[in-house]
């Protein structure tokens, strides 16, 4: 039997969760209106290509990872050819992105592992992930060494699969943290499950994509890493971080 203290704690946790859910929806509505949702999907890659693209994009500007991806595709005719090429050649092709010396062997190892799991000569296309429940598809991808929650979600959502799994990039993470949707010490990896749990379970891929893009745009265009523009922020009334900042400035 639960003690009164345990019951009170459980009730407080449930109330806190409900408040964060409501805030996530309110913020979603305002930021989608601010930045012009629905946002068109930017990628039409098949899931395997999207996976490689996501591995290239880690801590890299979009333009640089795009250049690295384009050159990789131009240099090698197939993913099988990338897998079996000398690592230095892959590293050279992706030199536009950050840490090509780490990403080249990682991409080749991922392609090797996918080929082994599929039991095929060439790495398989990953379209079969569409037949799995989303948590299983994510677990399949994340059990590959070097594939984390952001990469698995990007593969499922951004690719032609269009499966509603939500990636959390550094902008999205920063905005969510300042708004109090997640705690101040929650890292980008663990934030995926916590932030996805706040979204209505029936949301489709477009809604999940809009949510991610809206928070990301807000991080890029207003909630900057240093000196966020809180004075013109459309969710200031929901943001303890921004209110403390402006309050502090006013007091100072
Ligand atoms: S109020 Fe400031 S810190 Fe909060 S979300 Fe807006 S810009 Fe970011």
UniProtKB/TrEMBL annotation:
The keyword Calcium does not apply. Its EC number is 4.2.99.18. Keywords: DNA damage, DNA repair, Endonuclease, Glycosidase, Hydrolase, Iron, Iron-sulfur, Lyase, Metal-binding, Nuclease. This is Endonuclease-3. Its cofactor is [4Fe-4S] cluster. GO terms for molecular function: class I DNA-(apurinic or apyrimidinic site) endonuclease activity. Residues 56-221 form the HhH-GPD domain. InterPro entries: DNA_glycosylase, Endouclease-III_FeS-bd_BS, HhH-GPD_domain, HhH_base_excis_C. The keyword NAD does not apply. It holds the Pfam family HhH-GPD. It comes from the Bacteria. Belongs to the Nth/MutY family.
